[in-house]
Each structure stands twice: as C-alpha cells, then as structure tokens.
C-alpha cells in the first residue's frame, strides 16, 4: 500500500505535483483566514514589528531593503485607496464613481482597485520576503540612509497629496463607516 503525504492524495511523483499540492494547501489556509479580519491585520502588525526589531537589533542597517519595502507598501496603499474605475481616464461610457443615490434609492458601493484581502495578502508576502532578505548578508548595502528617508518622505507627501486631491475632486471616500441608520421624525 503506497504511503500518502496528504489525506487521500497519492504521493507526489515529481516536483510539479509536490508544488501543486503545497500551493493548494497554502491557498486553502489563506482562504480560511478571510473572515478573521482583525486577526489577519494583527498578524501583519506582528510581522511588521518583528521586521522593525530585526532591523533595529541586527548589525546592519538594511536600508535598501527597508526603502524598497516602504515604496512597495506605498504603492499598495495608493492602489487600495483608488477606485477601480478612474473617472479621469474614462471616456463617456457611463462608468463613473457614485456620487448620489440612483432613482431606486440604492447606494452603489465604492469598488477599490485593490481589494482589502489582496491588500493584506500582498503586505503579508512583502513583509515575509523583506524579513527573509535581512538574513542575507550581501543585501545589506552601505548607503547614506538620511537621503533615502528624505526621498521616501517626499514621495509619500506628493503621492498622498495627489490622491487626496483626487478624492476631493470626485467626491468619494474609500472607507465605509458602517451601515447608515435612519430615524423617523414622528414623535
């Protein structure tokens, strides 16, 4: 009787089969975390804290890795705050951000360019990769870190200013504050 690695699955006969089985298990595990929103973000916060502690207490500075991680996280944040259909890029084909209720009094939701789960998943992967990179000594390149910090702050300021202006111009808020409740005026 052949031995099985996974429940009910035959043993892998080559690398591709093993890779497929591992990816399926990983995807199954990730999909189980969808409903645990606070726990997912707490885990990412823990990984971020672990990364900061690793960088702080290691002998090197890991400035280039930290800078690359910061730029990537900024890119993810901008995609998370952006609408899926940009009104500046759309021609008159009827696709626009919802600003008022439709005639049947139905509010259209804000659809993001990068959904929250994918945002979390990309941050998780980037933190794991960055944490792994801090264990590779030749990636600790000597750079003058204040220049990188100033450059990151300038990039962050310019992109967020542009994003906030876009939000004000097209009157959208990328966050929902909960279900709106209505009260009656009858007393």
From TrEMBL:
Pfam families named among the record's database cross-references: Rer1 (PF03248)
Main location as per UniProt: membrane
GO CC annotation: endoplasmic reticulum; Golgi membrane
PANTHER family found in the cross-reference section: PROTEIN RER1
Protein's name in the database: Protein RER1
Job of this protein: Involved in the retrieval of endoplasmic reticulum membrane proteins from the early Golgi compartment.
Keyword Acetylation found: no
Species the sequence originates in: Polysphondylium violaceum
């Amino acid at each position: 009787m052949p031995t099985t690695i996974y429940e009910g699955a035959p043993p892998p006969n080559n690398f591709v089969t093993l890779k497929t089985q591992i990816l399926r298990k990983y995807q199954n595990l990730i999909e189980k975390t969808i409903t645990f929103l606070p726990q997912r973000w707490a885990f990412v916060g823990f990984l971020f804290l672990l990364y900061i502690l690793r960088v702080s207490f290691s002998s090197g500075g890991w400035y280039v890795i930290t800078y690359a991680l910061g730029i990537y996280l900024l890119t993810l944040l901008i995609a998370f705050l952006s609408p899926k259909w940009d009104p500046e890029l759309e021609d008159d084909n009827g696709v626009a951000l919802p600003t008022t209720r439709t005639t049947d009094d139905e509010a259209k939701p804000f659809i993001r360019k990068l959904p929250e789960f994918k945002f979390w998943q990309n941050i998780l992967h980037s933190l794991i990769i960055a944490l792994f990179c801090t264990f590779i000594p030749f990636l600790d390149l000597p750079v003058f870190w204040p220049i990188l910090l100033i450059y990151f702050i300038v990039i962050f300021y310019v992109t967020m200013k542009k994003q906030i202006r876009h939000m004000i111009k097209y009157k959208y808020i990328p966050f929902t504050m909960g279900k709106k409740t209505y009260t009656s005026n009858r007393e």
